[in-house]
Amino acid sequence: MILSVYRRLKLILQRFLVLLGSLTLFIFLFCFIFLLNSNESQKISLGEHDNVLLTLNLSGEIAETANDKNPFSILFSGYTGGTQGLYIPDIEKNLKKVANDARVKGILVNVNNLVGSFSQYDELRKVFDDFKTTSKKSLYFWLGAADTKTYYLSSVGTQVVLSPLGSLIIPGPLSQLTYLGSFLKKIGVGFDVIKVGDYKSAVEPLIQDSPSNFASDNYTSLNKTVLDYIVNQIMKSRPFLQKDSLKKAFKDSILNSNDAKNLRLIDDIVYEKSFKHNLLSIHEAKSVSFEQYFSHFKSKESVLPSNGDGIALIEAEGNIYFESSSYGAMITYTNLSKEIAWAKNEDKVKAVVFRISSPGGDANAADNIWHDINELAKVKPLIVSMGGYAASGGYYIASPAKKIFALPTTLTGSIGVFGVIPNLSKFKEKYGINFHAITESNRKSLFNPGEELTESDVRIIKKSMLFVYDEFLRKVSLGRNIEIKDLLPLAGGKVWTGIQAQKIGLVDNLGGISDAIYEAEKIAGFHPFPGEEVSVPLYRWKPKITSLIDCFKNSQNLRSCFSSGQQEVMKVFSNKNPDDLLKNRIIKSVEQFMLNPIQMLFFEIK
Is 587's pLDDT higher than 50? Predict the structure, then answer.
């Protein structure tokens, strides 16, 4: 009886799972087909003689890396709106296409809640500036309101207008710091900090109530350098401005629309729809969004995978660790080493650009990455492009490069080491929570947060840190060809802007990722004649399944997604062409999924 009930329950469960699996698959396929066709509604009809005003809304987060390693981001990119963010190389590539279209008379840009570092804004501004210079097209910015970064970006425009009740809140570069020293002491939490480098200030907020003199001097120097830079850049775009008036505007910090217009920081005060209507009338143009324009543009071209010699791009963003965790963007040795090995061994990769945006992290992980990068640099030209920051461990892994490019506002250097060890001895007394460490080690207090470190503990930790620091100096000295005695005044944990770092020899050139890529192409021999336009493939490492899906999306012929060897093997074993074989493989996988949905939730296309 019990067995019979059990069998019936098992049968009901099996049927339920088959039904659930079938329903899930149906919904997935329906959504996928719907998404693939949904962009048809965005397509527009553009005649050969139509005048166009493109509209571009900049919002969300500026992405430091391309989100093209996740199969689902590839499958649905362009349809879901996703969280990929604004990727500057894509914007640059698209603007180059726009520049060559005589129908486009200008671009109206609306900056709304755009999230990014000063360096990312600066790199994006340079992209717009290059577009304006080379295309001779008008670039209009409408602002609802603006902070320092937003105004700095928009100041590159041919015309900048502000909403009537909008304000410019422009204090310039600003370091907002929170110090928890007294608060943590009140609850009995302390930290034993051991560091090498007076300027190594990242840990100060945990143990102090205000920045040290070293930190204050460093912050002041960085902010002054960045302010001078952005003032000069704004004046290049708006040469009628007076330098003293512009600096005073940053000092005053808060300007209403009338103040901003009187100081000529903006050109007009007008509502967005009125401004757009005026531009459409002036250019006798139709309004077309960037999404509509490139939907129309993409429908006329077929993107096939590149197979020729080219450049590899490796992107690394976040804190440095050995392995992945769930805490935001990060650089992990286990993942990055795969990309480095691929770039080193791939025959069609003739040079490598290594994009770094990292404040540092685990010294051991950084050293292992340095080793792999150094080995890569021995066999292929390696160019580093620094993002918003490439400091401490971020600079460590950059040092083997043949050339280092930094943005003017990049924060880099910070050559130093520190360690933080929790000290809960007061916390234990205050709350009666006790800690015990049972060990034969002489470092018993080091492993017990309820005990104070002994002098012996501090001595042995300091010894280890000095060893790491000496290795840091040695490897930077080796990579940058700077004597250690000359490197010492530049180290000690001091942070430098890209402008300062170039002057002292920590970086070679000021420029963004496109400049680094062009330099790699030149070194690899792709530009033998100055001024000659040569299209060079740019490769990124991707998991095999991601590469295959990417190819399926962009190719009209599935056969092109397989190597010639794979195609021949398929023909031998199937007597069918690869397109039919793949179709049958997918149908078979669907059938298997419906029969056993649990086992087939994840499957490979080989």
Answer: no
